[in-house]
Amino acid sequence: MPPLGPSMDVVLVREAMLKEWDRRERPEGRYALLKVQLRCLWRAHASVVPPRLVFVVLSCSQPALVSRAITFVGADLPPLENRAEVFRLLVMALVIYAGMAVANGMYQRRLVRLNCLGRMGLVGLLHRKCLTMRDSDADGSGAVTLANSDAEDVANSGELVHDLWSKTLELAVGMYLLARQVGWVCVLPLLVVIAVSRAVSKITDNVAERQMDFTQATQERVSLTRAVLDAVKTVRMMGAVDRIQAKIRDARDREMGAYVRFYRLMVAFFVSSVALHLFSPAFTLTVYAVQAQIRGKQALDVETVFTALTIIDIVCTPANTLLGVIPEAASLLAALDRLQKYLLLPDREDKRLSLDSGYASSDIAVRIDGATVRPAPTADPVLKNITASLPRGRLVVVSGAVGTGKTTLARALLGDVPPDEGEIRSDFTKEGRGLAYCAQTAWLPNGTIRDAICGPLLDEDGNGGVDEVWYRRVLHACDLEQDLDQMPLRDATVVGSRGTALSGGQKQRVALARAVYARPGLAILDDVLSALDATTEQHVVDNLLGPKGLFRELGTTVLLITHAIQHLPLADHIIVLDENGSTGDITLYSYYFRAVGPGRLFLLTFSLLVYSALAGLIPVWLRRLAESGGERMWFYTGVYFALTTGTFLSVAIAVGTIFLIIAPSAGTVLHTQLLDAVLRLAPQTYFSTTPTAATLSRFGPDMGMLDRSLPFALFQALQALFRVLTQAVLLAAVQPLLAAVLPVAAAFVFVIQKLYLATSRQLRLLDLETRSLVSASFLETADGAATVRAFGPRWAAASAKQNAGAVDSALRPEYLLAGIQQWLDVVLDLMVPALAVAVIGLAAAVKESTQPGQLAIALTVVLNANTYLLRLVSAWTRLETALGAISRLRAFRLSVAQNMNLNPTLSLNWEEGEGETTYIPPEGWPIHGDVVFSRFSAAYVSETLALNDISVAIPAGARVGIVGRTGSGKTSLVLSLLRLIEPAVPPVPGAQEEGAVSIDGVDIFRIPRETLRARLIAVPQDPMVLATDTVRESLAVVLPLPVSREDNKIVGDADVNRDKDMVEALQRVGLWSIMQARASSLPREEEEGEEENSKKDVLDITMGTLALSHGQQQLFALARAVLMRRVGGRGQLVLLDEATSSVDAATDKVMQSVVREEFAGYTVLTIAHRLDTVMGSDLVLVMDGGRLVEVGKPGDLAGKEGGRFRELLRGGVWEDGKR
């Protein structure tokens, strides 16, 4: 796509907006952001005024043309004067309507440019805020919602601003013209406007509040969905899909409830607007006719009626628009408030100080004096009165039990959490001054491995600026060479969103390589060794932290947080923290209409058909009223009012049906289908190869389109279609000769819309797809803000550049789409002068047989037909665009069907078991827990086997350790038992046709996935803890969904009855006392029974408030496993995937004791990088390259010369049974 041009450079616009924001007045008033935007974009605003002014002048000239044309038809003029008048009328029609078309096209183009500039600037403000705000306030999903919704609404406010002055001017001119036409009766439209505006003000008092509630509900649902997508493997491993799906459905139900409450007001406003448009002319003409008859003045004639109708339309249209300003302005102010509130959130307080002359020493890099630090603003301090120094160029190891504040210390050194007391001084307080950071959970941008390591040094071709020799040394030191050799694209392999294409150990080593490659003066490494096997860990430690390691070579000061006490001898300084804390497919319409339901669709269609028919009859009846000469006045006016009332009621029913019935019901159905497809049907490889932002866009922008854009586009398309048809019938009835022109006009419109739809459809789909780039940019920035800040201004500038590029890419199709929309508007607008000239010319040619009423109706039809033609084509395009969301939903479900061997029909009611041979095991299965792999191979992608020809029999009740270096296939072996990785069959190279896996003699591939996972006990490596969940809700995700047998509905309070079991599970893993201590510092209500009150308080606290460390979260995951055994109805097979990777040795022993005692007699499979955790096992499986290379008792394998297990033990420095 072509660039936007130098005047729309994203970087320049965002820099200008950032500069204006930084110069804003303080303290900020409510309209601070609005003022900043107007100051930054005043030139763009000024360019919109001239074409809009020309359009208003020409629009107000239409009544003169109508009046003059009707008078001409009824007048008997001499031939010469007759021809001159015809010429003048034709020129007037041509100038007025062609001028309006051109002026409106220029206005719309400049308005779109203004909107794009506004969006560029606002997104720039939001992106910078993501990098500077406090970690406790950071929420990537919130920023995505603001950028996709509120920022777009505010950026599009230019139309509102220019409508205010232009519509006010148009209204004033219209009132003047109406006063000249009907005298004092002209005040009646104003009285109707005032009455309606009073009603609207009552209706819209709560618009901002309800819109905020709706937006907040949407944001909560999207945030919850995002958290689940990030942890979808964990959710599936735990067999918690039913619970999580019910939670997201509840969030969707709350969102739809807020939607209905908000749209009740919007429907009421819309109905009020329709009432103004319909009843203003009815009251005006009726009162005029009655008072004229009473006073004995001239009765209504055709010229007066239809000229007045044209003027009233000029009055009512801007009045309608100005009425619309009330809720629109309320919504705009609400969006501005949300944006400004976000932008004014406190920035992180970097209270770090430089090592001044009083402290400067060549031997000290960082000095901490009496620092007291809390991990979150609402949490208790975990570091109290800490005093320590980090010697320059030395290795400082920080150790301590779980929850003692090790990560908080790292964040304090980064400046992310300020100390309450004391001070932190460093040579590295300026961001980018030789600082590198590896978080406990590795953050990787979605790009190649080479990009992730070298960062912003790379040019657009992925090369320039890279020190290849140093790069190769870094790869070797981080033991990445063997991993890259196994990847077809080596370091050009895309890591995926959040690094999902890599194993946990590979992600951590890539992040570590990034830190080393930056040649930092200070490196903060937070538990980076926990995900590595013993051999790889020893290689990395020797080559980075050893006497000849790269960090020593660079003279880097290293702060290493670790539980691996075997590396303490390498440390120059040790800090120990104690516990005191210190497309146009017709099937798409069918798909959507099935979600709508035939009854609802019929009600909408019928009401719109009645509305169009009655609206078409009104001008015909007005002609009869005007030609009646004042006779039977009450009859004619009574029927006129009846037609107006019927029109009003039918359109009110249609609007209520589309927004209050169709939209929420169809949206709920489609959201459920999408959620089913993602959580139940999508293969795990989908989440490894698809960025989270791309999937999240289906639940965010796409769902927003299905909820808001699609229903409105359907309503407008049907309304415009029926109105165009009635206008065509009416024109053929009053001007039969013009019937010959209608097929030509229809053919012209058909060709134009085909060309327009073909182009706009593709651009709109591109627009929808590129919007996810902005979402991905915000999610990535929010996730890695601490890392980006740590690596300094160069990385921050690269992040801003990447975000600007995403905005530019997203705006290109939007801007081009606006261009072709304006082209369509101009082309269809130019049909109006052609039709007007044809009508006037035909009337002049057959003047003797033409009645003034016929010409009046024909001109009215011409004026209305263009409006509805434009609306029809535009609405049809928006409908097709919105159906693009349906297309993506259907395509996703079809692709899932093919992957899962399901029947790829268009049914909305797939079941997971469809297409499979299903077997539901009896209650309590697996009763014994024996596991057999028979020549089993599995693959994530078709090219490479993750498991290769695995054969092993694991007896019931055995305790099995699974070991091997990072990427050897340990996790894949466990995932295969949960059917998270599917068997590979020929023609995949190396796959075996007869491969099988059985538990208790049952082929697991006969069991539905969710049934299988719900029968096993799994503790994933990454515990899923949702910050907004209470402790009770977070524990209950692994329990069966409580359903009432009577009505098959979820029982809302069933989990409360399990409070005792939950407390006991937390006590069993040692978390209950920690939670009680933290809960005691929070306010709570006094109730009967101190002990029961205490339990309820703790279980009702949100997980985010407790601020558990990563190690404590792993204890929490073990508590879930205990709960699964006691009340979850799980079988005799336990799977532990690095369940103790982030805990200290003492906590590890506690967890191992819990596992032995709670799961005595169970078959337990444990993946471990710490080899001491498997030395007490009955059996050890050694994996390498996806193959099972050794099986045996740990003692036997340890003594086997040349064995792989023995090599791993030597790498782990295992001597005399101790490490």
UniProtKB/TrEMBL annotation:
Keywords per UniProt: ATP-binding, Membrane, Nucleotide-binding, Transmembrane, Transmembrane helix, Transport
GO-annotated molecular function: ABC-type transporter activity; ATP binding; ATP hydrolysis activity
Domain ABC transporter: 366-604, 927-1210
Membrane topology of this protein: Multi-pass membrane protein
Record keyword 4Fe-4S present: no
Compartment(s) of residence: Membrane
Alphabetized Gene3D superfamilies for the sequence: ABC transporter type 1, transmembrane domain, P-loop containing nucleotide triphosphate hydrolases
ABC transmembrane type-1 domain span: 62-331, 602-881
Transmembrane feature ranges: 86-107, 262-290, 601-622, 634-663, 737-757
UniProt-listed Pfam families: ABC_membrane, ABC_tran
Main location: membrane
A GO cellular-component term linked to this record: membrane
PANTHER family: ABC MULTIDRUG TRANSPORTER (EUROFUNG), ATP-BINDING CASSETTE SUB-FAMILY C
Protein's UniProt name: ABC transporter
Organism: Lasiosphaeria hispida
Taxonomic path: Eukaryota, Fungi, Dikarya, Ascomycota, Pezizomycotina
